[in-house]
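Let's practice the habit of predicting before peeking. Look at the sequence and jot down your guess about where helices and strands might fall. Then scroll down.
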Amino acid sequence: MPKLKTNRGAAKRFRVTASGFKHRSSLRNHKLTNKSNKRKRQLRIGPAVAEVDQPAIQRLLPHSR
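Done guessing? Here is the structure:
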């Protein structure tokens, strides 16, 4: 049986937490002067991945758990 390989693109985009995975918020790269402080502060928190998407990410990151 061959070794399981981690999908490197997914490994760079998702972080493992105790309850699943989280990812970086979009709209946080440039043109930040147009966005309010409240909006930027809320984008700082990495949102959790939806429950239905977790099995797919688990397959991409086999060694994460």
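How did you do? The chain has a mean pLDDT of 92.
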